[in-house]
Design brief:
cell wall biogenesis/degradation, nucleotide-binding, Protein-Tyrosine Phosphatase, Chain A, alpha/beta, about 450 residues, about 25% strand, UDP-N-acetylmuramoyl-L-alanine:D-glutamate ligase, 7-stranded mixed β-sheet, peptidoglycan synthesis, Rossmann fold, magnesium
Length: about 450
């Protein structure tokens, strides 16, 4: 089969392209912006890329066009496909029908922690010799790739996103995946560009719950009231909870060791370097899901002790003159707060300089203007890039003198270089490339 993917350079659609190519399909694709590293990764797999959405691409005559959710009406190639009544399908539906149909799907959903938890789960299965397929919205450092088919295994781990499927299918992506094992990590309001309120997201999560079989398992965060509300709407699948004393939970020690319990039963101790309560919750979810797939908890703990995290999740990009620079994907107030708190447990009294780009669609709309300052309050200094989010200037006022806002990236970099001192920790948070700020800061520090 020849498939032509519209929006191929996104993480999800690029993963589908890689899996389709690995499955033996001919794959071509296009995107508005075709550049490294995704373009290099795809081209190395024999996937031809085309810049832009010219209608002439129909001359490729693929068997089907696979449409990413970045594509909207008015897109010239999409309009030509519609005018000619050519076959097309969404990425999630293509994946469901061609890859997932006969697999044991382990799906990881939630507002936060999907990528990290999916990576942990895939690594546990791999460590146990099960060679799972996976499609993850980041690059787990244990694998160095975001997707693979795992042909010899019945298991497939997928990051189950609640964002919409496409302009022609407004259901959340995850309803297509039909998992046997599903993690419900947490649930908050987000994606204000497509959801009107929390109830609208809860409705999609319940649609997801409705397609999980009764011989499967739901692994749910027992502390999350919004998830409890979802499950109360109807649940036909066994549920195991984590994060509560009556379910799976952890007890931390001073030496960064965590003891793992189910109710009062001790299951083992995990020594690792990951920071924060949120990562302990992620680990519990992954261990329970892997246990459902037949992996004993002690083997899962052994695997997590060798887990290397995910790129752009508290990733240390470098240290110059005693100043450490970290990159993190946090872009929601809850994720921002837990990320800073996690770093604080590592740094102690050393200064944390938080650098934020409010870049997500929800952030740009100013939805979090009343909670953003509080989420940053644990940092010692806050620098916010407000070029595309001018509302954030007022949102920073509760932080008084420890917050500064910049519309110019170079001025922001220079300000960081001026205030940085040995033993400082610079935490950069954005769900985008942030104009290459990480390398610019490291270079500026070298010059000071």
């Amino acid at each position: 089969m020849h498939i032509h993917i519209l929006g191929i350079c996104g993480t999800f659609m690029g993963g589908i392209a890689a899996i389709a190519r690995e499955s033996g399909h001919t794959v071509t694709g296009c995107d508005q912006d075709v550049y490294p590293p995704m373009s290099t990764q795809l081209e190395s797999q024999g996937i031809e890329l085309i810049a832009g959405y010219s209608p002439e691409q129909i001359r490729l005559q693929p068997d089907i066009f696979v449409i990413g959710n970045v594509v909207t009406r008015g897109n010239p190639l999409m309009e030509e496909i519609l005018n000619r009544n050519l076959p097309y399908i969404s990425g999630p539906q293509w994946l469901s029908e061609n890859i997932l149909r006969h697999r044991w799907v382990l799906a990881v959903s939630g507002t936060h922690g999907k990528t990290t938890t999916s990576s942990m789960l895939a690594w546990i299965l791999d460590y146990a010799g099960l060679n799972p397929g996976f499609l993850i919205g980041g690059i787990p450092e244990n694998f160095g790739i975001s997707a693979r088919i795992g042909n010899t295994s019945p298991f497939f781990v997928i990051e189950a996103d609640e964002y919409d499927t496409g302009f022609f299918d407004k259901r959340s992506k995850f309803v297509h995946y039909h998992p046997k094992t599903a993690i419900l990590n947490n649930l908050e309001f987000d994606h204000a560009d497509i959801f009107t309120d929390l109830a609208a997201i809860e409705r999609q999560f319940h649609h997801f719950v409705r397609v999980i079989p009764n011989n499967g398992l739901i692994v749910a965060n027992g502390k999350d009231p919004n998830l409890k509300h979802v499950l109360k709407q109807g649940c036909w699948t066994p549920v195991e909870e984590f994060g509560t004393e009556s379910g799976w939970h952890t007890k931390g020690r001073a030496d960064n060791t965590i003891d793992i319990y189910c109710n009062e039963t001790f299951h083992g101790s995990l020594q690792w370097d990951l920071l924060g309560e949120h990562n302990r919750m992620n680990a519990l979810a992954a261990l329970i899901a892997a246990r459902h797939a037949g992996i004993p908890v002690n083997i899962g703990i052994e695997a997590l002790a060798q887990f290397k995290n995910v790129k752009r999740r508290m990733e240390k990009r470098g240290t110059v003159n005693g100043v450490s620079v970290y990159d993190d994907f946090a872009h929601h107030p809850t994720a921002i707060q837990t990320t800073i708190e996690g770093l604080r447990t590592h740094t102690g009294k050393a200064r944390i300089i938080a650098v934020l780009e409010p870049r997500s669609n929800t952030m740009k709309m100013g939805v979090w203007k009343d909670s953003l300052a509080k989420s940053l309050s644990e940092a010692d200094q806050v620098l916010c890039f407000t070029r595309d989010a001018h509302w954030a200037k007022d949102a920073m006022l509760p932080l008084h003198n420890k917050a500064r806002c910049f519309d110019d990236l170079n001025q922001l970099v220079q300000a960081i270089a001026v205030i940085a001192e040995p033993d400082d920790h610079i935490l950069i948070m954005s769900n985008g490339g942030f104009g290459g700020i990480h390398e610019k800061i490291l270079s500026a520090l070298e010059r000071t």
